[in-house]
Amino acid sequence: MRYRRRGVALLAALVSALACAPADQxxxxxxxxxxxxxxxxxxxxxxxxxxxxxxxxxxxxxxDVAHYAIAVDYTPATKRLEGVTTIEAAATQALSSFNLxxxxxxxxxxxxxxxxxxxxRQGQELTVRPARAIGDDARFTVEVAYAGVPxxxxxxxxxxxxxxxxxxxxAFVAAEPDGAKTWFPANDHPADKATxxxxxxxxxxxxxxxxxxxxxxxxxxxxxxxxxxxxxxQMVTYLATATLGRFELREGRSGAGTPVIAAVDPxxxxxxxxxxxxSGEVTDYWATVFGPYPFDSTGGVVDDYAAGYAxxxxxxxxxxxxxxxxxxxxxxxxxxxxxxxxxxxxxQDLWLNEGFATYAEWLWAEHKGKGTAEASFAxxxxxxxxxxxxxxxxxxxxxxxxxxxxxxxxxxxxLHALRKAVGDKTFFALLRTWTAEHRYGHVTTDQxxxxxxxxSGKDLGPLFDAWLFQxxxxx
Length: 475
Ligand code: TRP
Ligand code: ZN
Hints:
InterPro entries: Aminopeptidase_N-like_N (IPR045357), Aminopeptidase_N-like_N_sf (IPR042097), Peptidase_M1 (IPR001930), Peptidase_M1_aminopeptidases (IPR050344), Peptidase_M1_dom (IPR014782), Peptidase_M4/M1_CTD_sf (IPR027268). Residues 22-58 are annotated as: Disordered. It holds the Pfam family Peptidase_M1_N. By secondary structure, the chain is an alpha+beta fold. The chain has helices spanning 6-20, 32-41, 272-290, 326-334, 351-367, 373-381, 388-391, 405-422, 424-437, 445-456, 461-469, and strands at residues 44-45, 63-75, 80-91, 95-101, 106-112, 115-116, 118-122, 125-129, 139-148, 153-155, 160-167, 170-174, 194-203, 207-210, 213-214, 219-221, 224-235, 242-245, 248-253, 259-264, 298-303, 310-311, 318-320, 343-344, 442-443. The strands form 6 sheets. Strands 2, 3, 5, 6, 9, 13, 15, 16 and 17 form a 9-stranded mixed beta sheet that branches. The protein has a 5-stranded mixed beta sheet with strand order 19-20-21-23-22, covered by helices on one side. The structure holds tryptophan (TRP) and zinc ion (ZN).
């Protein structure tokens, strides 16, 4: 769900109505049939990208997704996925056709509002041509049936392997930045958030872990089990997961009462209690620092796929092939506020996710009496002037090097420099105001700078410019 600026469209409509209406005739009827005829005759193709110049083909224009209902049937032995994804969307222009993002698979059928629609594929774009054009502002439902062996993104010299990754016992699904399209048709860019329902059918004995909470007990028939999960809060596509395999589960509540779901591959059995307890403790602590926990459950998943990284999948961060320590759990759970509840509109602002989650690691150490944020800051500031981190301005993440160390560490240092400039009281009030004002929404760097200036009463332009945008070590 995105928020569009209506003022401009309304003004344009008014101007054209005034220009076209002969002065001596009554204005044209504003009845629904006239309005619909006009918008549909204006219908044109939705853009193949959502408007992020760094990722020009990701996401799409002309509509806004409200909800995904993803039904997938997956067989680990053959790696075959059969999916039906139903998307509820609202048009932001009259549409003769529109695109979804989908990578791989055979598409067998597409319907729009129940009627068969034409479709074609080109690279990762699935173009849908509804039988009747869709009017501006109209709500519509698209259903896509597809099947095949998922092919995750393989980006050897930058991001590694991500998306829907088949494993021996199931799948490891971690899709940042744009791998959701490797398992469901999507408006695959964080600028369009939506709620999600998942119905995942797997051989009995396989556990399916998606975002949010179970909506009922898993039901088994003919040797196959369907797991139904629902994430009722807005979520970006890259955080959607359907991680499958053999898992040991522990469920309960954190001290403050948030439901906790921990799941570990049997190879990481000894981590189950640690992941369960630490995730609950960290979630509760962050709620005292960042503001109320934004989601209905928390937890963590440890799979045996040796990704070597973790991803902050909404409500269920995932750890790929290692026993997560407190620091990384603190990082991934900080993302539930920074990245998940508050999401970026464009990838260049990624420090708003990673800089904040890295700063949270330093805050966690401070909380535990294992070092101070000031010490972490000083240690990094002592890096030599020719350290590559100083050449990479973290406020402008580069599409070919998105997850650069600078976005994490220098991003975190930016927050510490800010904290020192405004004082602890203002700094922590700022973090809570930031998460409250943009809960479940979108954010930009400019908005953060403006809020920091408003709350501190200081001109912070030079500080943010030096820390975020200059290719050298701030003095
Ligand atoms: N956002 C992750 C983190 O820092 C890192 C990450 C980037 C990632 N791309 C990914 C993890 C793809 C898994 C898959 O916590
Ligand atoms: Zn992170």
